[in-house]
Amino acid sequence: MIDFEKELHTILQDDPLGLLTVKAKASSVMNSDERLIASFEEINSFIREHGHEPAESRDINERRMYSRLKGLRNNPTTAEPLAEYDEFDLLSEPEKVEPVELNTVEDVLKYDTLGVLDDSAQDIFTLAHVSKPVDRPEYVARRKKCEEFDQFEPLFRAIHAGLKSKEKVTRKFNSERQIEPGKFFILDGMLVLVANKGEWEKKNFGNVNARLYCVFENGTESNLYLRSLAAAFWKDQHSRQVIDAKQLELFKDEEQTSGEEEPTGYIYVLRSLSEDPQIQEIANPYKIGFSRNPVAERIQKAVQEPTYLMADVEQVAEWATYDLNPQKLELLLHSFFAEACIELDVFDNDRKRHTPREWFDVPLHFVKAAVDMLISGEIVNYRYDHARQEIVER
Question: Crossing angle, helix 4-13 and helix 60-73, to 10 degrees?
Answer without folding.
Answer: 80
